[in-house]
Input
Amino acid sequence: MDIKKMFYGEYGGQFVPETLIPALDELDHAFENAIKNENFIEKFNSLLRNYAGRPTPIYFAERFSRKYGLKLYLKREDLLHTGAHKINNTIGQGLLTSFMGKKRIIAETGAGQHGVATATVAALLGLECIIYMGKLDAKRQEPNVKRMKILGAEVVEVENGSMTLKDAMNEALRDWVKNVKNTHYIIGSTAGPYPFPKIVAYFQSVIGKEARDFFDKNCILPDYVIACVGGGSNAMGIFQGFLDTNVRLIGVEAGGKSNKIGEHAMTLNLGKKGILHGSLSYLLCDDDGQVAPVHSISAGLDYPGVGPQHAYFKDSGKIKYDFVRDNDALQGFFELSRLEGIIPALESSHAIGYVIKNQELFKDKVVLLNLSGRGDKDMKIIEKKI
Ligand SMILES: *Cc1c(COP(=O)(O)O)cnc(C)c1O
Output
């Protein structure tokens, strides 16, 4: 493979055990063939439309806009089947699994959202599905564990290490090495070794395409496009529709409680260059160089790494990365609920909180915000704040 193609500037690459390189090569080859294959693309588009519920609307949030003095448009990924953008990617990679002639998929999940989206697609396509989840996470996210089981997936609770996401990831990698012949590993964000960041960005690019079409039809462009950033998939999804313009792009990270190690998930704002989950990007580590514990009020942003494309766009200055704290996200959550009748996911609430916090900057501007998911899943956390 052409080494240069595996990198975004200096970021990305394949920092994995030798035994996985053939599997990554096979995957890249299959992906490049699949996206040139009419049947594959037709099937993908048809499932996005008839199963997931695309295209999603772009909604002008009138009462919110009036109160905060801007023109706010929401890209409604929260209306998709299973309640977030993650299904775009799992449908794509699920189809890719069948395209490669494989019958078994594995995934790891922290909050359980990616696990549910994967189990959903496994049921849809008749694939065997194993989800790895840290035992502690499985306990914290009990309703999602139940959903995965209802959908027919086997949930393996990992009891190694801290019993959370990174241990589940190690276990999933071990499984993949052993069963690579009949198994595809569905990574849930624009992270992981090449070609995963490219594949996930591609399957999520439909968000940005639909949004750009909407603005093109109305012969305007937004002044700003804003999205929350965990691993970076929903943000890459929408930003890709505007990379060829001068529209200002802002990714909002989880500022958690403070700038102290362990109290936030601001990988791009406070991280250093390093290798995590098979690729070189920014990551959060402690003073000894160990991967740092992270915190966010939203489980989906609780990740110490970030996709390599974002690291590249941060350095180049094309995209600005900022943050808001847990409390700002909570304010965003309640304001959108009460002004628009839309209960957003706590992840997406970070982007809303950012608009409120920076209302001077956005005065009279047209702002497009990616509403990556709905908030039903967050009731347990919100219960204590009502
Ligand atoms: C998982 C998730 C995110 C964070 O993941 P990205 O890959 O950064 O998009 C954001 N919003 C929602 C609703 C999610 O479920």
User: Anything to note?
Assistant: Residues 84, 86, 113, 189, 228-235, 300-301, 345, 347-348, 372-373 surround pyridoxal-5'-phosphate (CB under 6 Å). The mean pLDDT is 96. The first helix runs from residue 21 to 34. DSSP finds 15 helices and 14 strands in the chain.
